[in-house]
Structures are given as C-alpha cells and as structure tokens.
Amino acid sequence: MDDRIVAVYGASSSVPGDGVYEVGVELGRRLAQAGFGVVNGGYSGLMEAVSAGAAGAGGRAIGVTAPSLFPGRPGGNSHLTEEIPAESLIDRIKIMSELSFAYIVLPGSIGTLTELALAWNDAFLAARRGLPPDPVIAFRQAWGRIVEMLTADLRTAPGLITMVDTAREAVDAVIEVGRAGPR
Fold it and tell me: Does residue 21 contact residue 49 with C-beta atoms inside 8 Å?
C-alpha cells in the first residue's frame, strides 16, 4: 500500500464532452495537485480522464490493464505514467487495492459496481476486526441509492462509504484521511 496513491474507479464508456469525463479530468488534476497519484484500470473513459488530469498536473497515473481480457485493446491510454499488466480481472482489482490507501468511485456500470462492492467489503471486514478501514468515497448521484439500500438490506455498518457530489469534495475527503496518516 502507498499512502499517496488513490484507486479511482469509473465507466469505460465516458467520452469527452459528456460532463462526467470532465469531472474525471478535474478529479485527477486535483488529486495530483494535492500530492496524490492515481491508479485505475488504465483504458478509456473515466480511467483515461483521471489519468489525463493527473498526468497533466505532473502527477503519477498508474494503469493496471488486463491484456488477456481485452485483447482488442492495444494497451493502456496515452496518459499513463506507468502500466502494470494483470492476468485476470481479480488480479487487476487486487493490484489496484494493494497499491492504494483510498478509493474514489465515479459513475459507472457493472464493473464499477463490482469494484465498489469489493472496496466496501474490505472496509467492512477491517472495521469488524477493529482496524481502521481504507476510505471508500463514492459519487452520490451514481451510487447513493444503491449504497443506502444495501446498507439497510444487508445490515452493514453505516458510514463505511463517504458520499460526495463533486471532485473537490472527493479530494477533500482524501486529504482528511491523509492528515490522519497511513492506515
């Protein structure tokens, strides 16, 4: 784990001009300006947007790609400062988790939901063992209803996911965790 790397998950289908892509660029830029690097899946959409924002601000942008799962993709996006190939989807998520100390979850689809659920589960298990959980920060518009419903239905501890509405709020939440020191 690196206490200066943040895993950022989000849709691969986002494109420049859709509004969400620009939030991803802003998020990457703000994280880099605050001294954090980013790690993501390394391909297109919000992964590219966050990488572009981070690298454009002089920060580190690590992409964990999965060439065997996506043979049609020629490699990571052009904004990555480092690419790490993974053998499988599970290995990809594991590497991102091992590299980071916090998670930010942008809007996405089933893959992003899977990443959110795994980060949430890790936080839940840490809390049950009496350890400080790695922070999980999610964009309310995309994930608020789902998290609220699952927290109630699954009877998980509330408060394991911090909901935000903007890139600035997400970075502020990461900075607060950074002040508390490595987890």
Answer: yes
CA–CA separation, 41 and 83 (whole Å): 9
Q: Which residues of 98-109 are buried (b: 16+ CB within 10 A; e: fewer)?
A: ebbbbbbbbbbe
CB–CB of 132/36 below 8 Å?
A: no
**pLDDT band, residue 181 (cuts 50/70/90):** very low
Taking every pair of C-alpha atoms in the chain, what is the biggest distance, in angstroms? Answer: 44
Alpha-carbon gap, residue 123 to 15, rounded angstroms: 31
Give pTM, 2 decimals: 0.94
Q: Which two tokens stand for residue 70?
A: 């996506």
Residue with tokens 């999965």: 66
SS3 state of residue 21: helix
Contact 54, 37 (CB under 8 A): yes
Angle between helix axes 110-128 and 140-154 (nearest 10 degrees) is 50
Beta bridge partners, 163, equal 138
